[in-house]
Amino acid sequence: MRRLVSVVLLFVFIISLLTACWDAREIDEWSYVYIIGVDKGVGNALRFTFQLPSLKHQGVEAGGQLGETSQYTTSIDAPTMYAGVNIAESFTSRRLNYMHTKYIVISEELAREGVERFINGMIRSRQIRRIAHIIIVKGKASKFVEEFKPLLTSAISKAQEGFMDMHWDTGFFIDTSYQDFIRDMKNTYKMPAAPLTAFNDFSNYRTSGNPPKEFKSEGDYYAGELPRSGGNKFEFFGTALFDGDKMVGELNGDESRALLMLRGEFKSGSIAMADPKNKELRIAFDTKAQKKPYIKVNFHEGKPFVNVKIFLEGDIQNLQSTEEYENLELKPVLEEAFKVYIKGVIDKTIDKCKELNVDVFGFGEKAAKHFLTIQEWEEYNWLSRFKDAEVNTEVEFTIRRTGTLLKTNPTRTAEGEKK
Amino acid sequence: MIKEGKFGVHEAVCLVIIAICNKIFSTTPGYVTRTVGTTAWYMTLISCITAIAFFTLIYLLLKCFPGKNIVEIYDASLGRVVGFVFSFLLMVSFLLSVGIYAREFTEIMKTYALPATPPSVIIGTLIFTASVAVFLGLETIARVAKLALYPALLGYFLILVFSSEYFKLHNLFPILGYGLDKTVFTGILRASAYDEVTILAVFAGSLQGAAHIKKAGYTSLLLSGFIISLGLLCFSLVFEYTSIQEITIIAYILTRGLKYGTFFQRLDPIFLLLWIITTTIYISILLYTTVSIYCKLFRLQDARPVAVPMAVLAVSIAIIPKDFSSVLSVYVEGIRTYGNITFFIMPVIALIVAVIRKKKGESECAD
Fold it and tell me: Which pLDDT band, with edges at 50, 70 and 90, does B67 fall under?
């Protein structure tokens, strides 16, 4: 009898397992949001734009290749993002899932008014990933989300990672995760910063005229102003600076590189400068960070003094001049000129941030070591004192290699060597 | 008296380590950081030292009454009535711990992993598993704890090693947090984080003598102090104190934030696996201890008839708090703050009384 009861109980238990998880949802019941755009609302507090994959192939092309998948976007005015998600679900057949969202794009207009209310609000959801990238867009975030159709690939998520990874190669913008942003928004050591993006109408691309005589660096542009034509309509360039949750300024490409160098996050970049012996010619270095910067903060009668030393190294990538900069006599001339150039960019960036009183460099992280308790540290209020800081910078730079040429011979014309 | 089987020092150490260190995966790091700021990692060492001091006194008490467990010792030292009250309070503390920690686990699971699952299903599954463990006995739980501890520790240390890329030394400054006085005071008060070492006194009969208990107690406390302190240090190195203060489960956020390229990221399933296994063992240990004290208190020979009613009581306790906030601020904090009384202070009182009575020639205290 006991055996029979046990068998029946076991049978009932096994039968119950056949139902699977009653609250489980299959992958085809979800619609995964790629990008969330946030604008100032019109019909309600905020406007949220979601980009979703349609998962509906455009058909099979000749040769059996699948056609590109398409995305669709939808914008909703709602008091909060989750209310917006609910609204969106009233006209979609799938539940929205933002577990794989990689970009959270915020319009500059909203960023300048303050982002605290939704940055704080969104993070409570388990679906929001703290490794998602925060991006500030000049203009409407909704437009960016709609137009985010990368040209080189149809794999949106891979393209999203690819765009952000470019900052390691160029240094023209920084990469900020949701975690970094919300951390810096609330901590006592430094202020937040985020990458800037904008649409380029290609109006800076002149089709005729002469180039400027003065040296203009490759990073001396703000987002949306690059002199180019073709390619993706949007570009990631420069950095948005925040005082707490409000955007208060921006850095151009050069200044963003300086910011990365000071933060110890600069990896590499091709940096051009004017030839020290012939200002009309240009020299470019494949520049890399040699090691993390040395930063020391001291206090004298309450005033902070910051000493920074940046360590760079590079290879000559482009030498327009025929001067033998490769030899041991002239190499120091080039190194010295580069040091002065980089120091100038760094000093300019620091001055700009001091004017805005935003320590986005993290000098406060070093300053905190001088305080024993959190009460003393918070009472000193580093973030309000940054503008008074005296920052002394120094740059170390070594040319390691000269590329595939050891020497540049002059071009010969009918008259002889070209001078 | 119930037969609980025998197990060695090794199993006992594993049992106690799982019971103590499981808290690192809970809301505790956030709560501690709210109080002491950047010093949580060494505050817990103060708690550990305090717990070692209390355990020394418990060990002296056990040495005083060789071969007896804490329930028998309370009776022998304080008399049947007061001894009964002390043992009953100890049992209630363990029972409350089962219910409250099961509820805390449930709320966190609902927040992070199973949002659509009714709390009763999670609580029920957890307590049901613990009840099965109680039926199987202490020896089984101890051996499973030994089996589970090594992979759990491996996973835990892997998470900490992977997070090392995100370490920022400046997060430890200001080095004294909200003040040394606050750190020391909270550290002493929070010795209750290590109070599970008391289970060695409950199962004194299953360990081969006071020397084994001493070895198991000190080893497990020192190792637990190291594991918890290392975890808190890593959390502090990755996140600023302002972030830790507001995040519900810092260990989960840490594992979720790990990113090595586009493929190797989101290691939260490792965390969930570790946490579910260790919590199940932890709840089983607590429920078994509750049942065991009850049986010793009422001199019952068989623990099995008590297991189901205790499980029902534990589920009832788990569903008392009306929300997550009250689970944390009232119940978990209550256990942390007042746990010292039942787990550490009462054995000390018993020791003092035993020593006084011995001097008067009334006690059977052996040494």
Answer: confident
What pLDDT is recorded for position B271? Answer: 81
Q: Which CATH architecture has domain B9-359?
A: Up-down Bundle (1.20)
pLDDT at A58: 53
B304 and chain A in contact, CB less than 8 A: no
Question: What would the mean pLDDT of B340-349 be, rounded to a whole number?
Answer: 93
**Residue A366 in domain:** yes
Exposure string (b/e) for B280-289, b if CB count within 10 Å is 16 or more?
Answer: bbbbbbbbbb
Interchain contact, A373 vs B262, CB within 8 Å: no
Residue A108 lies in a domain: yes
* Range with the poorest average pLDDT among A19-23, A57-61, A267-271, A398-402: A57-61
The crossing angle, in degrees rounded to 10, of helices B28-36 and B250-257 is: 110
The answer to whether B242 contacts A373, with C-beta atoms less than 8 Å apart, is no
Chain B within 8 Å of A401 (Cβ-Cβ)?
Answer: no
Residue A24 scores a pLDDT above 70: yes
Cβ neighbours of B116 in A, within 8 Å: 23
Using the 3D structure, point to which of A200, A223, A251 is the last residue of a domain.
A251
Q: Is the separation of the CB atoms in B141 and B199 below 8 Å?
A: no
The answer to whether B235 and B48 are in contact (CB under 8 A) is: no
- Any B CB within 8 A of A23 CB: yes
Instruction: Kindly report, residue by residue over B225-269, the tens digit of the pLDDT.
Output: 999 999 999 999 999 999 999 999 999 999 988 878 767 777 788
Please give the residue range of the domain that contains residue A419.
Answer: 264-419
- Answer with the residue of higher pLDDT: B366 or B72: B72
pLDDT of residue A419: 64
ipTM summary value: 0.87
The CA distance from B20 to B305, in Å, is 28
Check residue A309 and give its pLDDT: 97
> Same domain, yes or no, for A327 and A382?
yes
